[in-house]
Write a structure and sequence with these properties.
two-stranded antiparallel sheet, 3% strand, transmembrane helix, ABC/ECF_trnsptr_transmembrane, transmembrane, cell membrane
Length: 253
Amino acid sequence: MGAGHAHRLYRHGHSPVHALPPHTKLTAVFAFVVVVVSTPREAVWAFALYAALLGTVAYAARVPAGFLLKRLLIEIPFVAFAVLMPFVAQGERVEVLGLSLSVNGLWGAWNVLAKGTLGVAASVLLASTTELRELLLGLQRLKLPPLLVQIASFMIRYGDVITDEMRRMRIARESRGFEAKGVRHWGVLAQSAGALFIRSYERGERVHLAMVSRGYAGSMPVIDEVTASRAQWSYALALPVTALVVCVLGWTL
């Protein structure tokens, strides 16, 4: 069970965070996100503390701020959705810079931005300190259904293959003078998408037959058995436990 290469989000390093077993980091990130989502949106200070905790983890992992911020751009669609909320939400209105905005919409936008950004940042830190192969082993160690782990493994293995197939098809179209400029070219693009689907399906059948011929019986062999000591669990769970304390204070104060 291996990806065969490092993904683009991974940043090679030898920090204490890199050295943690993958299933401990997966558990820590999942628990941290649950705590963040459970925090009341009115506790603005709590989200500032969460950001500080993630900053501490990034410092311990030796992940530069620029590397982290660049990869946070993936949440731009959520930002666009949040920006619209104060304009379309109902309820009490308030004037801000001459604009009539919904109070509930403003709180909702803040809720989406704060919790979404923290969740994405935690995920990016996980991806930047854990190789894909280790993530799969961690999921397996956490007893995720084997079929889901296998599907994720094949997606990782053959994602680049399908992307390269798309690139070759694009080059073939352009070499014949095709250039998509409008709606009238959508038919050609739809035919290309259909051809790509058929090729991918046929490739999947060939891969399955090759696996069956080599003794595949519905489950992949476990190559490595990852374990974690009590100290490693304590180190990994320090983030969500500290965040849980902040969350409790956010509800009580």
